[in-house]
Amino acid sequence: MELLTIGEFARASRLTAKALRLYDELGLLRPVAVDPGNGYRRYAPAQLERARMVVWLRRLGMPLADIRNVVEMAPGDAAAAVTAYWQRVVADTAEKEQLAADLVDYLSGRDIGMSTSLAVKYAVRTDPGLLRRSNQDYAYAGRGVFAVADGFGEGGAMASRAAVEAVQQVAVGDLLNAMDDVAKRSGEAVREITDSGTTLTALILQGSQIGLVHIGDSRAYLLRNGELFQITHDDTVVQSLVDEGRLTLDEVATHPQRSLLVKALAGEHPPAVQLRDAQEGDRYLLSSDGLHSVLDIDTVREVLASEEPQPAVDRLVELVNRAGGPDNVSCVIAHLVAR
Ligand code: MG
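That is the input. Now the predicted structure with magnesium ion docked in place:
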């Protein structure tokens, strides 16, 4: 087999000799022979395809460690790996796009001095349900901070409590800082509890803005102008399947793995953060899955729309338990009203 010098291989692959030396050092593309005397690298013509592959993957922005794996794969597996990588990029970009839009709104709102203060009426309720012996949910409402957490594992009750307590301790002054603090401190608080984790959905009200910090399958809903919106994204296996178009929403309710989480506090994933505008008349509901996987959405909307916070949380828990109360159930309701 005729080997190519690095210069010849560089010309044929349209890479520079410098890039080839770098790829060699990074283990992405090793020359088949290196002259022990002068250190000259020699490449086989069959390596051209791998070189092109490396170039394409670099252009896609794939991290080096991933490229190293992908170039070793059979074409079918490599195609699947590239597809999966690209889906992650698209999802990350969408999240960043939202953050950028939020930030623009936030800054614009501040510039035109839209900091009309809203008052909030709220209520919180947590209940073990009818089938579970302990309550691993934890919920809090007060001082412009609201949170629901659903713990799992050996120390699940400790985990959910630690996460929510970290939220309670955050100083609500600067909203962006407060959101960051909630995301960071709740993660730190839970990490110390072994073999356990928790979901967390937390809402911080500051002036005319709302900060939302979320991870897992607890949810936040917003009732505005009579319409109910789910404003958090479930970090569950089934939701990922729905996002990828591999499962329909109708199939989710009965899916055997519907409570399997892809993200929670305990893992390496940080919570997602969102900034939203707060309007007079808005009503928020935070719920653990023990509530929203049991009650249908119309019932939730009706109770949220028609009742004051305290009777509404009582009513929701009552309805869940009347339907069998299969899981711990928690809810926080907050009504934004004129001060
Ligand atoms: Mg639960």
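The mean pLDDT is 89.
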